[in-house]
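User: Run a structure prediction on this.
Assistant: Running it now.
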Amino acid sequence: MRALGVIELALGDWGMTDLVFLHQSQVKAAVAQYGASKFEVKQAVMQIFGLEKPPSPDDSADGLAIAFAAQCGARANVA
């Protein structure tokens, strides 16, 4: 939780105050299908972005999937 606070503080300093945090199931549903495996997400990212090889390291595929989900309008479940 402390890391999240630091991130929020830094983004706030840059004027980014309307933050949306997506759950992994929302990201998976946006790029592949609900309940997709890590491999399926990586394959979907390759197809979406027209990549010939899988992104490396694995976290970069996750980052691309998150960016795509946010761009597509995926929204966090907020109470």
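The mean pLDDT is 82.
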